[in-house]
Design a protein that fits this description.
This protein has about 400 residues and is mainly alpha-helical. The protein has three domains: about 90 residues, no CATH class; about 170 residues, no CATH class; about 40 residues. Strand 4 and strand 5 form a beta hairpin. Helix 9 crosses helix 12 and helix 10 packs parallel to helix 11. The longest helix is centred in the C-terminal third of the chain and has 31 residues. It is globular and about 75 Å long.
């Protein structure tokens, strides 16, 4: 009812240049995103010839055009700022209220993504309860005192896909299998034209949500990120991570991060850990075992850098030799990226249209199941169902 009232108020004022807002709701968003007034001004003034001042932005009687610029950052909708109720800081609302520090310096794009999926988590949890769908935890809790290799090997037997033709199918299989154990896994895609991009690879939100950034050029890294965040889920310790395979041997990592990295490695490597652990020491004398490492990387979804990183952890390559190998591999990857971008530019100049389209995020069966239950129970309508799954109405039959 309140939302309808504030929306009517907005409609009444929509032809006016200014509108009265509840300034406490804007202040709440600043706390949530950990942004200062200067941060907001910097964002909204980026493309303005005449910069807005603090007095023009942070007041209750505000220009509608300015309010729209503010909401382009927070994506709450105009109704949010018109609501007369004063918001309260709630631990349930956001991980930003539950934690003070994270394993990454978050960009605005990262904060937007985290908030987006925090809201999605809350919404789906409510829909599950209203439709009497049980999504209780089925996997056990663990601690960093538990052996990550033993746990990884045990869970690999029930979660790791048995048959997969490629890394994309493997990733989809993992997401599907986790859904069977009531773990939501979401993907998001930062397209090239997205203004604010996320500088994170993934995060875990308690109690049962894992979010991944689609890394189209390195699905192996995305698979590792999923396994790493699964480690956080098993420990039930929330985190937002910027995970790099060549940083896994960083001695300054916390015990929690080391545990999650070890779990992820053993979960993905499986029986190949025996081969990796027992090979001879990589050095210039044996060409750093390049051929062997490349062959192992073809068999399992671990990049060559990730495997070499494991070798330095178990003293199968010296730190100096590792740095040489890492530098060469990074240059190889960078050269491939440059070549790919150059190819795109040349094709555009020649009028050749790019093949394919932007990658589409994988949808977890658990998300579908939750929304289907809500639809069948009449809690949401078909329009809301399609909107949440980002599908066209004519495609709805494929999701029922």
């Amino acid at each position: 009812m309140i939302q309808k009232i504030v929306y009517l108020i907005y409609l009444c004022h929509s032809k006016m240049k200014t509108i009265a807002i509840n300034i406490s709701r804007l202040e709440h968003l600043l706390k949530l995103y950990r942004l200062s007034k200067e941060d907001i001004l910097l964002q909204i003034n980026r493309e303005l010839k005449k910069p807005l001042t603090e007095k023009e932005v942070f007041k209750s009687d505000i220009k509608i055009s300015v309010l729209n610029k503010i909401d382009s950052i927070f994506n709450k909708g105009i109704n949010y700022y018109l609501d007369p109720l004063k918001p309260k800081v709630s631990l349930e609302e956001s991980i930003f209220f539950r934690k003070d520090l994270f394993n990454a310096e978050l960009t605005l794009g990262a904060k937007q993504r985290v908030t987006q999926f925090e809201e999605e988590k809350i919404a789906l949890s409510a829909l599950a309860k209203l439709s009497n769908l049980k999504i209780d935890r089925l996997l056990s809790y663990y601690s960093i005192q538990d052996n990550p290799k033993e746990i990884a090997n045990n869970l690999r037997g029930i979660l790791f896909p048995k048959n997969n033709q490629n890394n994309k199918e493997l990733l989809k299989g993992l997401i599907n299998n986790l859904a069977e154990y009531n773990v939501f896994v979401y993907e998001f895609v930062d397209t090239h034209n997205k203004r604010e991009k996320a500088n994170i690879n993934g995060f875990f939100l308690s109690p049962n949500v894992i979010v991944l950034k689609r890394i189209q050029t390195s699905l192996k890294r995305e698979i590792f990120t999923l396994a790493h965040e699964l480690g956080h889920y098993l420990l039930n310790i929330e985190e937002i991570d910027e995970i790099y395979e060549d940083n896994l041997s960083n001695t300054s990592l916390s015990k929690i991060e080391k545990w999650c990295n070890d779990f992820a490695y053993f979960f993905i490597a499986g029986n190949y850990d025996d081969i990796i652990s027992n090979i001879e020491k990589a050095s210039p004398k044996n060409d750093y075992l390049h051929n062997l490492i490349e062959n192992i990387s073809k068999e399992i979804p671990l990049s060559r850098i990730a495997i070499y990183t494991r070798l330095v952890i178990i003293n199968k390559i010296s730190r100096d030799d590792y740095n040489i190998v890492k530098s060469n591999l990074q240059k190889e990857y960078k050269d491939a990226e440059i070549e790919n971008e150059l190819k795109k530019v040349l094709n555009k100049e020649r009028g050749i249209k790019p093949e394919g389209r932007n990658p589409v995020p994988i949808i977890s069966p658990l998300v579908k199941k939750t929304l289907q239950s809500a639809l069948y129970e009449g809690i949401i309508n078909e329009s809301e169902f399609c909107k949440r799954l980002n599908i066209k109405p004519e495609k709805i039959e494929n999701f029922l």
